[in-house]
Amino acid sequence: MGPALLTANDVSKSFGEIQALNHVNLEIHEGEIVGLVGSNGAGKTTLLRLFSGVYEPTSGTMTLADGKHVKEARQNVGVVPESTGLYSRLTAWENIRYHSRLHGLSDDIAWHRTTVFAQRLEMLDALGRHTKGFSRGMKQKTALLRALVHAPKVLLLDEPTAGLDVTSARTVRSLVRQLGEEGGTVIYSTHQLAEAEAVCSRIIIIHNGEVRADGTPQSLLELTGGKNLEEAYVMLTKDKARARQEDQKPMSKIATWWQSFFTPRTPMEVGEDE
């Protein structure tokens, strides 16, 4: 196991009355492929945003190996969010080049790195196409290239295969495994247990904002006595999963009025002849 790159020390994060994360303690080590597994609303995305420095913890600290704040090493972190956030009027290469220039890379270096990974993802021929017409899989691959171009020490992936076809999902998983074999560090958020088991050497189960288990797939089976990872997960998350945070946000008065105005009324009673 390599040295610790990222450390969450007693971290909690709340949004108003919503407790997204509760007293999380984790270390992410160099060379690990870590799976964050949990249902929708478990706190996986919030934790990724804390690791990337986008969010500040309500309490506790998020630090680097040298004790510095994670914000001071954003250039060493590559992020693929759940929503790719590509500029649709730009080509795939223009999206990647814009990102690489923000990190101070020359176009020559950025292009070389992009073509190397584009060949692995089988999308070299698509770099000159505008992303507006891209499929979900092509957009996800472009977002991966954008995250990898500045050679980050840590790659954060939020549901990287969500909505992808079988072939595209296999390609993404293959690339992640290759990165791990080459000594890369990846934090891989997913709610697919089979995917986490196939890709990750370490699995962290998050449920209702808490870390319920942390270890290799085999150690989780030994901890719970489950026959497979699905059984282990169910045993560790027996309490009801909360709704996603965005589902709990109250609507404004205007939004409530607008919804009621345009939502057709459902008849209370309908006769047989109707």
Estimate percent helicity.
25-40%
Across the major sheet, the strand order is 5-6-7-3-8-9
Low-confidence stretches: 266-274
Overall shape: it is: globular
Taking the sheet with the most strands, its summary is: 6 strands, mixed
Number of strands: 9
Structural class of the secondary structure composition? Answer: alpha/beta
* DSSP summary: helix tally: 10
Description of the molecule:
With 274 residues, this protein is α/β, with parallel strands linked by helices. It has a single domain, classed as 3-Layer(aba) Sandwich (Rossmann fold), CATH 3.40.50. 36% of the residues lie in helices and 23% in strands. It has ten helices and nine strands. The strands form two sheets. It has a six-stranded mixed sheet with strand order 5-6-7-3-8-9, with helices on both faces. Strand 1 and strand 2 form a beta hairpin. The chain is globular.
Topology:
Layout: E1 4-15, E2 18-29, E3 33-37, H1 44-51, E4 59-64, E5 77-80, H2 92-102, H3 107-120, H4 136-148, E6 154-158, H5 166-181, E7 185-190, H6 193-199, E8 202-207, E9 210-215, H7 217-224, H8 229-236, H9 245-248, H10 253-262
Parallel strand pairs: 3-7, 3-8, 5-6, 6-7
Antiparallel strand pairs: 1-2, 1-4, 8-9
Helix pairs in contact: 2-3, 2-4, 3-4, 7-8
In short:
36% of the residues lie in helices and 23% in strands. The chain has ten helices and nine strands. Helix 2 packs parallel to helix 4.
